[in-house]
Specification:
This protein has two helices and ten strands; from the N terminus they run βββββββαβββα. It is α+β, with helices and mostly antiparallel strands. Strands 3, 4, 5, 6, 7, 8, 9 and 10 form an eight-stranded mixed beta sheet that branches. A two-stranded antiparallel sheet has the order 1-2. Strand 8 and strand 9 form a beta hairpin. It starts with a strand and ends with a helix.
Length: 174
């Protein structure tokens, strides 16, 4: 942060002028990086391909935010999908090109967005209205996108694990 003073002395078109020059102080500070976060999206969420996640996305910047959206990338698996699949969706653009705060409801449906049934990293992003600045991204959340068959297998494993745990607790209590 730096400061500077400018002395203004003027005479208008009618020959009128101030009694004394006016000193104006300016404080200049660098543009901060924007902040973006999601609200209502949990890490390690399990989602059927045909289901929809709904959550809030918020962005803030001192200079202004131009646009905000979602991005996703499959988690590489050397056997199942060695090449990651990426995508993004625009959620909202600032009405006047730049707003200090933006908020939107995010709706994420893998089937409609052509997201494969694989684990993905899902994050929100925003673009700073200050030219030349890179996008800011939220913390990426893991979402397990599954087909109905994959979901049935996952659910069976979860129920078996819970049953085993309940049996262990029951045995300890006796």
């Amino acid at each position: 942060e730096s400061g500077r003073e400018i002395v203004l002395d003027w005479t208008d078109v009618h020959g009128l002028h101030g009694v004394q020059p006016m000193t104006v102080g300016l404080r200049v500070h660098d543009d901060e990086l924007p902040a973006v976060y999601s609200e209502g999206l949990r890490n390690e969420t399990v989602l059927l391909v045909s289901d929809t996640l709904t959550f809030q996305v918020h962005a803030h910047d001192d200079f202004g935010v131009r646009r905000m959206g979602l991005s996703w990338e499959t988690i590489p698996d050397p056997l199942a999908s060695p090449k990651p699949v990426k995508g993004e969706k625009l959620l909202v653009a600032a009405a006047d090109g730049e707003q200090a705060d933006l908020a939107a409801e995010a709706v994420f449906c893998p089937e409609l967005l052509k997201v494969p049934a694989e684990p993905i990293k899902l994050s929100a992003w925003c673009e700073d209205a200050c030219p030349g600045h890179a996008r800011a991204c939220s913390v990426a959340m893991t979402v397990y996108v599954m087909t109905p068959e994959q979901h049935m297998i996952w659910l069976t494993k979860q129920l078996t694990a819970w049953d085993d745990e309940a049996r262990e607790v029951h045995e300890r209590e006796l």
